[in-house]
Amino acid sequence: MRKIVDIIALERELQNRIEVLNSDNVFLNTNGATNKINALVERLQLVTSIKNNFEVIEWLMGNEDISRKRLLDQDGA
Asked: SS3 for 39?
């Protein structure tokens, strides 16, 4: 499984790629440009959700260092 730093890096790279594409007038005038950007935005939203819930995902994957009690602790959220 990937580390949280990999997820953070991917999130940053997706944000940068979307910004570049949104500022590229040549790209924006091509067929399907909006669909391609929207696909990257959806991927970014998924990656952000994974990043925000990484501890839960680790727990689901069997990380014994994370307990249900820890996941339920509102002070740790």
From this structure: helix
One DSSP character per residue, 57-76 reads HHHHTT-TTS-HHHHH-TTT
For the CA atoms of 22, 2, 5, 57, the dihedral, rounded to the nearest 10 degrees, stands at: 90
What is the reported pTM?
Answer: 0.85
Between CA 39 and CA 18 the distance in angstroms is: 10
Tell me the Ramachandran region of residue 24: left when phi exceeds 0, alpha when psi lies from -120 to 50, beta otherwise.
beta
- Rounded alpha-carbon distances, angstroms, from residue 8 to 12, 16, 31, 34, 77: 6, 12, 31, 25, 18
What percentage of the chain exceeds 70 in pLDDT?
97
Please check the confidence at residue 52 and state whether its pLDDT lies above 80: yes
